[in-house]
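Supplementary Methods. Inverse-folding protocol.

Structures were first reduced to a discrete structure-token string of length 88. This string, shown here, constituted the complete conditioning input.
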């Protein structure tokens, strides 16, 4: 399973990317997280459905760094294009 997500709110300059990378590593997900010019954060993650859902739950949790206002997501089939999880 693959999720493409955008996280909006106060999510840059607060360690959000590296926190996300740590959570993705805990879940053995592969993908990438990056800051976007509009102040949001983009996440592409692949792995088992249950693990991907846990990541989405964490992104929406009160424990996430900064202040998450909303998370937009789209789900698709994994294509195996990632070898690990990285922050860019």
């Amino acid at each position: 399973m693959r999720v493409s997500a955008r996280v909006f709110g106060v999510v840059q300059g607060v360690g959000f990317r590296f926190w996300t990378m740590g959570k993705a590593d805990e879940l053995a997900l592969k993908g990438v997280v990056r800051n976007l010019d509009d102040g949001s954060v983009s996440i592409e993650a692949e792995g088992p459905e249950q693990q991907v859902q846990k990541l989405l739950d964490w992104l929406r949790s009160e424990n996430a760094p900064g202040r998450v206002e909303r998370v937009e997501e789209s789900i698709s089939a994994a294509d195996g294009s990632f070898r690990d999880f990285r922050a860019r």
